[in-house]
Amino acid sequence: MRAAGPNGGGIRIGQRLRAARQQRSLSLEQVARLTGLTKGFLSQVERDLASPSVASLLAICDAVGLPIGALFQPAQTDLVTAENRAPINFGGDRVTEFLLTPSGERRLQVIESHIEPGGGSGDGLYSLPADAEFVHVLAGRLEIEVDGTHYRLTAGDSLTFSARAPHCWRNPSPHEVAHVIWVLVPSPW
Length: 189
Known about the structure:
It is globular and about 45 Å long. 20% of the residues lie in helices and 31% in strands. A hairpin with a 4-residue loop joins strand 1 (86-88) and strand 2 (93-99). The strands form 2 sheets. A 6-stranded antiparallel beta sheet has the order 1-2-3-9-4-7, with no helix packed on it. The chain has a 3-stranded antiparallel beta sheet with strand order 6-5-8, with no helix packed on it. The chain has helices spanning 14-23, 28-35, 39-46, 54-64, and strands at residues 86-88, 93-99, 109-120, 132-139, 141-146, 149-154, 158-161, 167-170, 178-185.
């Protein structure tokens, strides 16, 4: 998911987060108070030296008034080819993700994830401003917790749940990458 930074994947989000914070005339200390994160960690995120969990990234975006969709590279057409799919930085650890729908698409959002062994959404549960979330495991395994219920999915398994329910996920495998498709309806961004 980040081309530079700690996890080596897609896009750098730090500059966008810093610009949004500065546009609202917020100090790192103020954002730290709003999010419950440390000032040092926020500084590292803004310099693309640390990768926040999904929950932390959502909290940071909320604090600086930035829709998380603003972090994605916009697609120019309705067609998203394999070579032009946008790498996204949605947070988490050891995750490479691509936006498969155009960034302006509001009816739904589809994300492809490659989750390294032990990788996942990070510490903490999070929820999304969408009605439904669907996950399908193409390869590997995925453990997901939704509103206190734990699921273990393997290749070919799917799960549909309320995106507003607190949830988190991870690849429990010590060796195998999990290849997963996520669908959010409607697009939260």
